[in-house]
Amino acid sequence: MACPHLTPSTSVSSSPKTLILSSLPPPQILKADLAATARDGAQALLNQLLSTCPIASTPNGVLLSLPGIATKLPREKPLPPPVAQTTWQKFAAKKGIKPKTAEAKKKLVYDESTGEWVPKWGYKGSTRREKMIGLWR
C-alpha cells in the first residue's frame, strides 16, 4: 500500500546538484529545492553505508561498522628538523644532571615546630631559623 504524500526512499540523482549563484530562483522555490537536494543526498549516503558496511545485531541494538580511514591527510609543511642540543644540554646529559621537579621548586616548607609555612631559604627561611635556634641553645 503506497502512500501518495510520502516521498520515495531512493535517490533520483547520483550526485548533488550544482547551483549557479548568478541565477538563483525566488526564496520559496529555493527552500523546497534545497530540502529535496538535502533529502536526496542523505538518502544516497545511507544507501551507500547500508550496502557496503557490515551490519551486526547486538542486545543493545543494530550496529553498523564504519570503514576505516582511507586517506591520510598530509601536513601543509614538512616536519621541522630536530633542534641541536646546546652546550649546557650536552654537559647536563653527560654528567647526569636532571631538571628540578615541581616538588623541588616549591619555595615554602612546613615548619613543624612553629606550625606555619616558611621559605626554604632567604629572609626568615627555614635554614636560617635552624641556625638561629642552634645559637640560642
TrEMBL record:
Keywords linked to the UniProt accession: Nucleus, Ribosome biogenesis
Gene Ontology, cellular component aspect: nucleus
Coiled coil (UniProt feature): none
InterPro entries, per database record: Ribosom_reg (IPR007023)
An annotated GO BP: ribosome biogenesis
Principal location class: nucleus
Lineage, broadest ranks: Eukaryota, Fungi, Dikarya, Ascomycota, Pezizomycotina
Subcellular location: Nucleus
Family, as annotated: Belongs to the RRS1 family.
Annotated protein name in UniProt: Ribosome biogenesis regulatory protein
Role noted for this protein: Involved in ribosomal large subunit assembly.
